[in-house]
Amino acid sequence: MVLSGYIFDVEGTLVDSVPQDILSLQESLSRFEITVPYELLQLYSGLDGDQTLQLVAPDLPAEERKKVLEVRGMIYEEKYLKSVKPFIGVRDVFKELTARGGRIALATDCKGPELKHYRSLLNVDDLIDAMACGDDVDHGKPDPRLVGLALRKLRVPADQAVMVGDTPYDSEAALGAGARAAGVLTGGFSRKALSDAGCFVVARDMQDLLACLENGPSHLVAAAG
Is the pLDDT of residue 220 over 60? Predict the structure, then answer.
């Protein structure tokens, strides 16, 4: 397998933000007198926000869903954003991939202050060749358009690219855009959930990712042993 393009999700993959994101949505829903268990919201972590609300609050009209997401954004920025930390090893992985001639893109639904803060935490702007974010498309993952945009910006054929994410929705978006999918276990989903969604490898975290990409599923067997 020849890979020349590497597309990374951000939240839950490069930065440890999933609990904060879920709590902010849960709190926003409670302000609209809607109670949803944390465990249920976890199942839809990484899914397009409007689609998530259609699943967990099916009686909520479209206009109300929009308001819930707006409030969620305010809560997250005011209460949780500053607590987000980058995962260990991100810059080292990016440096190694670029040293091998790889091109790197970010493909994330987030935007605005959130994305700006994440980029400041990660300190990898000098290693990134392209970015596709929530400002660029109207539909979040698993819609493949965000990944497709990242591929076009990278100028890398889809069959030579891999999308690295922490949710099944990242994998679905990658496969829908014609790229491969790889998973990391840092977003709360199980190895089976990511594999079932189409990830050809699933790494423990960013530090384990390079070995997984190099050795494929055989690395997982060796690690388990």
Answer: no
CB 180 within 8 A of CB 162: yes
Q: Which domains, and CATH codes, for the chain?
A: 5-16+85-224 (3.40.50.1000), 18-83 (1.10.150)
- Annotate the chain with three-state secondary structure: CCCCEEEECCECCCEECHHHHHHHHHHHHHHCCCCCCHHHHHHCCCCCHHHHHHHHCCCCCHHHHHHHHHHHHHHHHHHHHHHCEECCCHHHHHHHHHHCCCEEEEECCCCHHHHHHHHHHHCCHHHCCEEECCCCCCCCCCCCHHHHHHHHHHCCCHHHEEEEECCHHHHHHHHHCCCEEEEECCCCCCHHHHHHCCCCEEECCHHHHHHHHHHCHHHHHHHHC
* Cβ atoms of residues 124 and 88 within 8 Å: no
Query: How far is it, in rounded angstroms, from Cα 72 to Cα 76?
Result: 6
List pLDDT tens digits, range 172-210: 999 999 999 999 999 999 999 999 999 999 999 999 999
pLDDT of residue 1: 61
> Is the pTM here over 0.70, yes or no?
yes
The pLDDT tens digits for 134-156 are 778 777 889 999 999 999 999 99
